[in-house]
Design a protein that fits this description.
Elements: H1 4-8, H2 18-40, H3 56-68, H4 72-94, H5 100-121, H6 129-136, H7 147-187, H8 194-210, H9 214-224, H10 228-249, H11 251-266, H12 276-303, H13 308-315, H14 318-339, H15 343-354, H16 356-371, H17 387-408, H18 413-423
Helix pairs in contact: 2-4, 2-14, 2-15, 2-16, 2-17, 3-12, 4-11, 4-14, 5-6, 5-10, 5-18, 6-11, 7-8, 7-11, 7-13, 12-13, 12-14, 15-17, 16-17
């Protein structure tokens, strides 16, 4: 049986798969591209009319993010998580480890704990580690399925999630119709039944969740501009809901995309072992379907001026459009990795990806300092487009800092702690001359 020290050592430079690291780095940056509105604006993630500007450059900014990136970066990151799971367990089992399950579940449970710390103590309500950790608890028994079986199971999960979203939208529209009947009765001077009063109240709650009033926005801004304790207590209720009902509601989203990643890795797609035509098919098919659906959804929202019913109507096709765009982006990125273009950029992105956990959490720390009251207190002060100046600055910093860190250390700081907790053996952190520099491509394109 392989020794703990051998298994706990980092994957050597020559054995890393650069395409996975590059994809992970790009997806990490893409997640910040989407998350930044949650860091800097109150209740304005999807609806630019709520806050942050909804005309001119702000509207174009919202449209670009919605058309090209909404939901896709989370999708790519989930796919990569599944691929990483197969890579980890296959290497453990190939090394003759009989405790692969112990290592895997210990690693996964610590990810759940990291997620709880990240959301509650590091103050990020859009936290995703908890979801990944809980979902990953269900993956281990599926690791030996054939790729086709994985894809079939993933498709079933995607359909369940899409049907669930459609049912949610249909039920909400039904509440709207009932409330309209109650409003008509009121307008005619009639007396409402208790059921009609409930219908009106239910629709009011829905409207407020989509279109919070000025008092709600003011309260949110003041809380985020307050002390650390003010932010923590203000966000605690949302965190509790996200990490209870949220994991139940969106389980199939994460589970299905992880299965897709497991299958694609086994098929040799993610490590560039497939011919170029495979990736071109992904690009053409993904963007043809995804752009058409996303443009259709945007048309609904713009024509109806971002009404609640417009959001409900656009939800019906959301999952299909997001999945197609994810496939298209993945194809483009893998072709980029195959090309060898901009080698310096690929190496820097790979370094960012190798430190994905540390860099992801650092987004929260940096943005908390920039936007919350115990730092610069800019929450709610910037327009939507201005938030992306912050994004580009963080990208630039991490593209420089990550390669520099890995020149001297073998792991990112949180990756090092995570590995220590996983293998119950402290790995060496400082790099030795024999370790080499940045990652190289282990598998060459066919």
């Amino acid at each position: 049986m392989a020794s703990t020290l051998t298994t706990a050592a980092p994957v050597t430079t020559r054995n890393r798969i650069q395409s996975l690291d590059v994809l992970r780095g790009v997806a990490l940056f893409g997640i910040l591209l989407i998350n930044i509105t949650g860091f800097g604006l109150p209740h304005a993630y999807s609806d630019p009319t709520v806050y942050g500007g909804s005309e001119g450059i702000n509207l174009w900014t919202w449209g670009t993010m919605t058309l090209l990136f909404e939901g896709t970066q989370r999708g790519i990151f989930s796919i990569l998580f599944g691929a990483g799971f197969i890579l980890l367990t296959s290497r453990l089992e190939a090394a003759g480890r009989t405790d692969a399950a112990d290592i895997y579940y210990r690693r996964t449970i610590w990810l759940v704990i990291f997620g709880l710390i990240h959301s509650y103590l590091l103050l990020w309500t859009g936290e995703i580690l908890f979801y990944y950790g809980v979902t990953a608890l269900f993956l281990f028994p599926l690791r030996r399925l054939a790729p086709r079986a994985m894809l079939a199971l993933a498709l079933a999960g995607i359909l369940v999630g899409a049907i669930w979203s459609a049912v949610d939208a249909w039920e909400t529209v039904e509440i709207l119709e009932k409330s309209q009947i109650a409003q008509a009765v009121q307008a005619d001077g009639g007396e409402l039944t208790s059921e009609q009063e409930d219908d009106l109240e239910a629709w009011t709650d829905i409207e407020e969740s989509y279109k919070p009033d000025k008092a709600t926005l003011t309260e949110d801004i003041e809380a985020h501009k307050g002390s650390y304790l003010d932010v923590l207590t203000h966000q605690a209720e949302d965190n509790a809901e996200d990490e209870s009902w949220g994991i139940y509601r969106y389980f199939f989203d994460f589970f299905s995309m992880m299965l897709v990643g497991m299958a694609l890795f086994k098929l040799g797609v993610l490590d560039l072992r497939r011919p170029a035509r495979v990736y071109w098919v992904m690009v053409i098919a993904g963007y043809t379907v995804g752009l058409a659906i996303n443009a259709y959804e945007m048309k609904i929202l713009l024509q109806d001026e971002f009404s609640v019913i417009a959001f409900l109507n656009s939800d019906w096709t959301y999952d299909l459009g997001r999945m197609a765009m994810t496939v298209g982006h993945l194809g483009v990125l893998l072709l980029f990795c195959r090309s060898g273009w901009l080698g310096w950029l690929q190496r820097s992105l790979a370094a960012v990806g190798r430190m994905a956990l540390s860099n992801y959490v650092s987004h929260s720390l940096i943005c908390a300092f920039i936007f919350y009251g115990f730092g610069l207190g800019l929450y709610g002060d910037l327009q939507r487009y201005q938030l992306y100046y912050v994004v580009v600055a963080i990208w630039a910093f991490q593209l420089i800092a990550s390669p520099l860190w890995l020149r001297y250390f073998r792991f990112g700081p949180l990756e090092w702690i995570w590995r220590w907790l996983t293998y119950l053996e402290r790995p060496a952190l400082r790099r030795r001359p024999a370790d080499g520099g940045g990652p190289v491509q282990a598998a060459q394109p066919a």
